[in-house]
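FAQ: What does the model actually see?

It sees only this:
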Amino acid sequence: MFIRLGSLRDKLARRRVTDVSFLIVNEQEALSRAMYWELKRRTAAAIPVYQQSPMQEDVWEALEGDKDDFLVYDRCGRLTFHIVLPYSYLHFPYVEAAILATYFKDICGNCSVQSSMKNATASKISTDAQPHNKKEEAGDATHTHHMPHDVHVHQSVSKVKTDIHRHTQK
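And it is asked to produce this:
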């Protein structure tokens, strides 16, 4: 999965989808912590792997997610898609579609961060982001989960993001 994440990143870059960041959050359990270096070794270059401390608030619990989930955030830090297993497997189109939708559409409304390159590139690539058939379109709508934007969750998410950001800057 981790090599495929690098492939997805590269595919997006070839399509001029820039300013997309990936981060792997390793579980807090002892076995996961013991396997951290193996996880890091198997992860594509330049994709950070964040290791939770056993004493900190569990990141997955704070984000209302679980191992192998994909959480997609917009430029303003708002959650746009929460993709769970089995739909988070990268051979399915859901993760890529969620990233593209988040990148090209103002899903949460009134995004305060706008990129002029985003608008110029959107017209060139938007047809590639469209589902190829009705079944795929229905599957995308049914199986990606949008978490409601409530203040408590955003405060937790903001704190967790700050902790992760500090860790990855070391």
